[in-house]
Structures are given as structure tokens and as C-alpha cells.
Amino acid sequence: MVAALLGAGAGVFGKIALREIPPFSFTFLRFLVAFVFLIPFSIKSLPAFRKKDYKIILLSLLASANVVLFAFGIKHTTANIGQVIYTAVPIFSAVFSFYFLKEKFDARKIMGIVIGFLGAGFVVFLPLISGGSDGSSLYGNLIIFLAMLSISLYWVLSKKIQAEYTPMQINNYFILTTAFCMLFLSVLDFFNSPRWWEGVSTGAYWSLLFVAVFCTAIYYLLHQIIVKKATPVMASMILYLQPFATFILSYFFLSEKITLLFLAGVALSFLGVGIYNSAIKINGIKYKKGKTEKDFFELIKSDQPGIRDSVHIFGNLDHLRDGDLEKNGDFYMKYWAFTKDEHVLHERKKHFSSTEYTLIIKGKIRGHIGEEPVTLGTGEYVVIPAGTPNNLVEEVLENAVGITIKSPSIKYDTTNVI
Predict the structure, then answer these.
(1) In whole angstroms, how large is the CA radius of gyration of the chain?
(2) Is the peptide bond before 90 cis (omega within 30 degrees of 0)?
(3) With contact defined as beta carbons under 8 Å apart, do 224 and 168 qualify?
(4) From CA 128, how far away is CA 365, in angstroms rounded?
(5) What is the mean pLDDT of the chain?
(6) How many helices (H) and strands (E) does the chain have?
(7) CATH 2.60.40.60 correct for 288-416
(8) Residue 166 half-sphere exposure, CB side, CA atoms within 13 Å?
(9) For a surface tag, which of 48, 132, 237, 281 has the fewest beta carbons within 10 Å of its beta carbon?
(10) Cα angle: 86, vertex 87, 89; to 5 degrees
């Protein structure tokens, strides 16, 4: 609830500040203050800007485009409409995933995408229907729509680099890259609005500070904590709660009114996103968990150095002869090991075509399959069907080693899931 309130404040208080502060300068100050605020919390994850980091820097420009377009668009529309347009992010992320990550859609997902698209389109073109009586404009709505597309593409493409960078590192590159770009673009404000700072009220500066500290720095930190400590569905609930928080804040601070046409667009957007997410959730709860026989395996040289390089496992897979893991095509097998309390860089993922079998040889881990928390100990295994989002290693409770088998083995069959 706190995260939703803070996220909703970005549109409301950002609109107040942008009445007096030019967009480029506003965005530069917003992200500069946010970065300074985050330094004590992320001192070990500060950007190094090495030669090999050019991909994440270029990717961060997509997120930078989002905040710049938002700053321009929100000046010409209402905070309510701006927030509702952003609820379509999951819908357009799904479309981009289809093209860039080859994600497969079933009938439920396609229906959710179509309904969500209609809802977003209805809200964007609302000024043509209402004649602008609600305080919005087609120009402002289209700019916000482009901002929403840029952040949707950013989330999809960022999945490809999550194996190399932690979420905090990705976030810090985004914030610092945006601040750096806006430093140069803010120079344009000196020509378009000379000495603009002389006419800025104390209220506008307080609004800027609120957006920078609470709606940018603290909001991102809270969102990362929710993703790490709770389920993905709990994290996604922010998306549903923010519009309602925006309704309340914009009513008291901006005197914005809600029309029946606007509510119709909101209902379509929420319905589409809900149908799409329900398809993911349904697929995420079907899996098999069990425990092996005592003599299922024998770990050779378990006390010797180089255990990661020389391991032999003996036993049989009789308990899998029920079609859960068929011998269809090639398979992939991986041996892995984690130590207790280590920083685990292991993202939530799913396989489009492969069934996954994971056996814990020794130790204990904790994670999620779909939205269900799962703890696995020595000798326990899970069989996870294709299309099921999961992250089995979110926390290492005891030093753990295990094997993971994926069948069939297909290149580019895996994608990270937010």
C-alpha cells in the first residue's frame, strides 16, 4: 500500500512541479537527488561504466526516454489518465516478448492482450470522445502512451542482461544514465526559459523533492524489497493499487474529476491485464514434488576440493516414468552449488518448451514455483512443466548442491520473468 501511494504521487506532485519547472530541468534534478539519496543503500552496486557496459547504458536510454516523455506528457493531461495508461505495461510487455523473446500465447493471454489494448486505446483517445472536458488532451495522452511503450520495451529487453547484473545495478545504471543525459538536455531550458528558477515557488520545489526522494528513490527500493521478499503477484498488485491512490491524491491536490467514460476505459484496461495475469498464475501452480529413496544417489569425493568439477551421481529415475520428463529430443543437465547466505544472482524464469527436473543432493533452498513458496531439502525433487514461472533459489538455507535436467534442450527456450 505504501509503495502504491508513493508511485501514485509521481504523477500528481510531478504535475504540480512541472507547472513552474521546465521538463528537462525537472527530470535532471529528480534523478540527481534520487541518485544521491540511494548512494548509502547501494554503495556496492554503483555503476562502473566499463567498456563492456555499453549494452546496459544503451538499454537505460529507453527508460530515460520514458521519464522524459512522461514529464512532457503529464503537463498536457490529467494525473489520473497518465497513471491508467501505464497499467497497460504488462499488455505491451507481452507483445514485445512475443517478438523479441519468442514467448508463446494461449487463448486466455491473447484475449487479455486484446481487451487491455482496447482499454488503453479508449483512455488515450478519450479527449476526442469527451471533447477535452476532463482536462486531458490527445497530444498529452499520446506522449504518455509513447512513454509507456518505451518502459515496456525496456522491461522486456532488460531480461537479457539480468544474468550479468543485479536488479540494484540495473536500477542504478538507469538512474545515473538518466541524470547524466538530462544534465546536457537541461541546458536547453536556459534558452527556452531563461532564469526559470527565479519564478519557482516553494511548493514546486517541495513537490520536486517529494517526487525525487519518495516517488523515485524510496519507491524503487520498496519495489525491489517486495519482489525479493514476497511473491511476484504481490509485487504486481502495486500496478492495480496505484491508479486508485492517484484518484484520491489528484482529487485533493489537483481537483481532478472522474468521468464515466474514464471509468469505462479503466475497467477495460484492468480486465485485460487481469485476464492476462490469470493465465500466468494458472500455469504457475501445476508441478510435482517428491522425495527420492535413501540409496538414490551417491556423491563421490564429496569432501574433496574441486567438487564443482568432479561429481558422479548413481541411481535411477523410476519415479519419473509417468510422462513428467519424457525422453523426447536432447536434454540438458547442470550440476550447481550454493553456499549459505551468499548473494544469489538467480532470476525468476520460465521455459517455453522444456520440462525442468531439479534434485537437491544435499542442503536446503527456498524459492517460488508460480506464486507458491517452495522449500526443498536433501533428497527432494520437483518436476516443473513448461510455461511455469519459477525461481527455486531465492534463498540458501543450508549449503546446497543439486542437479537440474531440462528436456528437451532448446536454444533460447528460457526467458526471465518479472
Answers:
(1) 24
(2) no
(3) yes
(4) 55
(5) 76
(6) 14, 8
(7) no
(8) 13
(9) 48
(10) 70
Q: Coil, strand, or helix at residue 398?
A: strand
Segments making up each domain of the chain, as ranges:
2-283, 288-416
Distance CA 76, CA 66 (A): 16
Contact between 144 and 82 under an 8 Å Cβ cutoff? The reply is yes
60: left (phi over 0), alpha (psi -120 to 50) or beta: alpha
Count CB neighbours of 330 within 10 A: 10
> For residue 300, what are the CA distances in angstroms to 52, 143, 297?
39, 62, 10
First to last CA, the chain: 20
How far apart, in Å, are the Cα atoms of 366 and each of 119, 370, 393?
A: 38, 13, 6
Phi, psi of 114 (to 5 degrees): -65, -45
**Closest Cα partner for 67 from 167, 168, 185?**
185
- pLDDT digit string (tens) for 349-396? 777 777 888 888 888 988 888 777 888 888 888 888 877 888 888 888
What are phi and psi for residue 301, nearest 5 degrees? Answer: 60, 40
Residue in the block written with cell 540409496: 295
43 Cα distance to chain centroid: 22
pLDDT tens-place string over residues 39-64: 887 777 777 777 778 888 888 898 88
pTM of the model: 0.64
- C-beta of residue 147 within 8 angstroms of C-beta of residue 70: yes
CA of 325: how far to CAs of 283, 370, 385, 405, in Å?
Answer: 17, 19, 9, 9
Is pLDDT of 286 > 70? no
Q: What are the grid coordinates assigned to 304, written together?
A: 574433496
Cell of 386: 513448461
At 290, the pLDDT band (50, 70, 90 cuts) reads low
- What span, in angstroms and rounded, lies between the C-alpha atoms of 136 and 131? 9
CA 414/CA 96 separation, integer angstroms: 16
Confidence (pLDDT) at 409: 65
Interatomic CA distance for residues 52 and 6, integer angstroms: 34
**Mean pLDDT (whole number) for 167-195:** 86
DSSP H helices in 159-286: 167-185, 187-192, 202-212, 219-229, 232-253, 260-283
| Predicted pLDDT of residue 282 | 47
The model's confidence at residue 299, banded by pLDDT at 50, 70 and 90, is very low
